[in-house]
User: Fold these one by one.
Assistant:
Number 1:
Amino acid sequence: MQYLCAIMLNLILFGPPGSGKGTQAIRLKEKFNLIHISTGDLLRSEISNKSTLGLEAQKYMNAGKLVPDEVVIGMISSKLDENKANQPNGYIFDGFPRTVPQAEALDNLLLQKAEPIKIVLSLNVSEPELLSRLLERGKSSGRADDVNEDIIKNRIKVYHNETTPVANHYEQLNKLKNIQGEGSIDSIFEALATALSQA
Ligand code: AMP
């Protein structure tokens, strides 16, 4: 069943690399009729198109580092403009924001172009589990940043240093909801969908 919303249901699916954001975003998008915006997917599409932006971003991504804020903020701004005329029920932001300046920029963009973030659903997964999921994914994902253990560890470190403050930003706004990100994909999805229905 799809939910139709009178007001926009804008949410951030938050969590470390390998926490299941991409998998769950696709399901949430279907159930709640939302537009899914993944900065990782957008960047990978720039890379496959061999655009200047993509070739520049690739250097950071292959090293497990964050792409500069202004690049990803610009991409999000364009996506919001592209979709504005469709009057979406809402957006799922996946892999964005990853720094506090990105979170502040998103809050401002939504003020101008849509409606504020309603809820931030944060998937909690232990570090050994993240490592093993990403190495497993690396066997088939074709992603250079999934195959090397040192790069994966660097991505997790970057998450701790630069991205966890984003959770504090939304906690102060009373928008953060922690979700257990280990268990079956279905049970995690149920927990996310319940939290979203109650938001
Ligand atoms: P993901 O697909 O979300 O795991 O992202 C893969 C890589 O893309 C990350 O390790 C970063 O190098 C880059 N990336 C994705 N989203 C962002 C973002 N919001 N800010 C900076 N870099 C990003």
Number 2:
Amino acid sequence: MNLQAASSLKANTVTKIEDLESCRNQWQNQTIGFVPTMGALHEGHLALVREARKTCDRVVVSIFVNPKQFGPNEDLVTYPRMIDADLDLLAAENVDLVFIPDEKSVYPDGFQTKISVVNLDTILTGQFRPQFFSGIATVVTRLFMLVRPTHAYFGKKDYQQWQMICQLVADLHIPVDVIGVPIVRESDGLALSSRNMYLNEQDRAKAPALYETLLAGADKARAGMSAKDLEDWGRETLQAAGFESVDYFAARLAEDITTNYTCAANQSGRLIAATWLGTTRLVDNVEI
Ligand code: AMP
């Protein structure tokens, strides 16, 4: 089938748990790659889907804007929703199934459970978005139980989230391989994000400075600048580049982001930042 024909088809979708289960039950003894998303798909999401497609017999993508990970003053209502375009993109990637549950299917009346990875959910982004990581841990656990994937794909763009999922899967002994996929960027370095469409023209022009500052900061970290000095330098540099406020600019150990990076320790690090342009929060990270 040529690409044009494929992209004019919609991907196979289910919205009900019973329909998901009846598909899943036909795939016993097959590898199932799962890509959880909130939709408004872009090349970053598609990189995860392609990774899954390379390895797994079946690929399942979920689209669910998870209310539990949004705070009361955050963008749950305005979060971009574009299901038709998403389904075209997923059909072109030859996805086997797209699960698009409604809120009641994910959180039925009386739902009480909250999952929290305690060492990771109060640091970095967790300090600014207190409900965020437990909201994600809860929905991902629930989706894992429903989809029962053998492999699950997460972007390193959301580095703290990826680390949290790895910890969650290890702690609960969930039988799934978690694969972290490299960050996909625009040609000017801006990490792709569904929220980039909120940026106005002026802010979009400033946005690549985040990646540039992270790259320069990683050089400084390797050259021995302390995490504290690096944080101060990162804040000043981003503010000079027009970012209104900087939530954090943190050099941490790559395998343990609760601990500051020091070059003397001879371990790999990750420089992670979250900052604001207007009402849009950008998160990004680079290797040290
Ligand atoms: P979201 O729809 O924002 O919840 O993202 C769904 C998945 O796509 C998460 O695992 C993200 O980390 C991943 N993702 C989002 N943007 C990118 C990107 N630019 N590069 C790689 N992965 C990404």
